[in-house]
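Practice problem 4.
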């Protein structure tokens, strides 16, 4: 049984290692970047704050209830809180109270606050979507740049191998006296140039990986390799017009929802500022009681009469009643019960003059609403500019792709023809290498045009609301 468990754990470990070591697709890179990006994490935390504010604004409809308690030492000549008379002894006392208050009318400030916090939450959610889109686009662009660099490297290695093969053949011909040293020297120079192209392509790939891992915030001490997948390059004229793409972008991009949520948020702030100019009516209630160390119970005993004198005419004796009393300390519980008091009422507050603060706040709130409305228009204008630029770039990339493809085919035929003429002794080595370099340059331009078109096409799909994928 233990051996079986060990085998299962080993298989699970090997599967996990294999998954981690497998090449990364674009979708996997984007997903990882979205899960580990600190800007997204910060935005999510801000979203939690917005949710807490929304919940709090809803709870504000409920009454506020608070309890208070005090323990006092009255030293020296003070008023006894129980007898309400002066006393020169040290007296301990306690007071307890529970108060409640609720806003009955405040110009709908509570409702406006709730709606404002709802708009703030929507704005945060849209802001999160904007950040996610920006990261996804950056990851996609860098991913394509790495693939482009890999293809350039592959082509550079191919050219280097061709040059090396030609160099070896030329060196043999030179030993046999079939050619001159100029061809060998030219091919050595071409070989060095091919090595430079290989190094440049390798540097481009390395920079691309560094940029991509930084965007993903991937650990630098772990291996990382993207999946180089076969892709088709068949640019076709799109049926959508730039106006159609712009309309779809307005519907799909979260930038618009974010700007609209900010407008709603500012409008509710404007309503709240206006509500502060209105009277507020609140209800309140209070229960309180006290305890004093000097509190005593009075017990009445027998009554006796004490003579204090005689009447003037009849000389009758005047007697005054004297009631025997006994004072005992009054218990804590009895005092709290006997001293219990209640209070309930309404209060109204009418803003008359507060240094013009409420009026200024209202004016500023209206200005903030206008600013946010202009910001929405600016966002639409920016999207329009981005879409038209992206559409123009796509058309340019399509034309460039087709032109470079034709150039590659022509330069390849020209190089093959030049090779035949060189073999026949009609063409010199410089002209042959020139034809080879022209073919090489055309091939690099064609590779760059492929990925330029891919990225431009990806951006258009992004504006149309499609998922970023290759």
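Answer key:
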């Amino acid at each position: 049984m233990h051996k079986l468990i060990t085998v299962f754990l080993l298989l699970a470990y090997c599967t996990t290692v294999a998954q981690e070591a497998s090449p990364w697709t674009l979708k996997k890179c984007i997903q990882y970047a979205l899960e580990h990006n600190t800007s997204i994490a910060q935005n999510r935390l801000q979203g939690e704050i917005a949710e807490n504010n929304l919940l709090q604004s809803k709870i504000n409809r409920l009454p506020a209830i608070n309890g208070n308690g005090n323990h006092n030492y009255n030293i020296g000549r003070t008023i006894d809180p129980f007898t309400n008379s002066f006393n020169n002894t040290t007296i301990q006392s306690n007071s307890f109270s529970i108060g409640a208050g609720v806003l009955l009318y405040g110009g709908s400030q509570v409702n406006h606050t709730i709606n404002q916090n709802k708009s703030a939450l929507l704005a945060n959610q849209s802001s999160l979507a904007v950040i996610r889109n920006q990261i996804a686009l950056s990851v996609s662009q860098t991913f394509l740049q790495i693939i482009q660099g890999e293809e350039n490297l592959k082509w550079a290695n191919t050219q280097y191998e061709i040059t090396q093969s030609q160099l070896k053949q030329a060196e043999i011909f030179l030993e046999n006296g079939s050619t001159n040293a100029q061809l060998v020297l030219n091919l050595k120079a071409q070989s060095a140039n091919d090595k430079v192209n290989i190094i440049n392509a390798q540097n481009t790939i390395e920079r691309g990986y560094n940029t991509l891992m930084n965007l993903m915030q991937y650990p630098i001490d772990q291996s990382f390799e993207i999946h180089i997948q076969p892709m088709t390059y068949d640019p076709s004229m799109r049926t959508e017009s730039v106006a159609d793409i712009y309309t779809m972008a307005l519907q799909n991009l979260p930038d618009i929802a974010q700007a609209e949520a900010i407008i709603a948020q500012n409008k509710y702030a404007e309503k709240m500022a206006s509500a502060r100019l209105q009277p507020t009516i609140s209800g309140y209630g209070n229960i309180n009681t006290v305890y004093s160390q000097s509190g005593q119970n009075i017990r009445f005993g027998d009554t006796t009469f004490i003579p204090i004198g005689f009447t003037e005419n009849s000389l009758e004796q005047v007697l005054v009643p004297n009631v025997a009393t006994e004072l005992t300390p009054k218990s804590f519980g009895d005092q709290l019960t006997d001293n219990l008091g209640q209070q309930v009422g309404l209060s109204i507050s009418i803003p008359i003059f507060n240094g013009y603060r409420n009026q200024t706040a209202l004016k500023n709130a209206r200005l903030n609403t206008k600013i946010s409305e202009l910001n929405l228009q600016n966002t639409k204008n920016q999207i329009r500019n981005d879409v038209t630029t992206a559409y123009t770039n796509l058309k340019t990339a399509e034309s460039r792709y087709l032109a470079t493809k034709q150039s590659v085919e022509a330069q390849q035929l020209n190089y093959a023809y030049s090779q035949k003429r060189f073999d026949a002794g009609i063409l010199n080595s410089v002209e042959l290498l020139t034809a080879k370099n022209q073919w090489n340059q055309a091939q690099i331009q064609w590779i760059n045009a492929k990925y330029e078109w891919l990225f431009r096409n990806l951006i258009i799909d992004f504006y149309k609301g499609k998922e970023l994928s290759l």
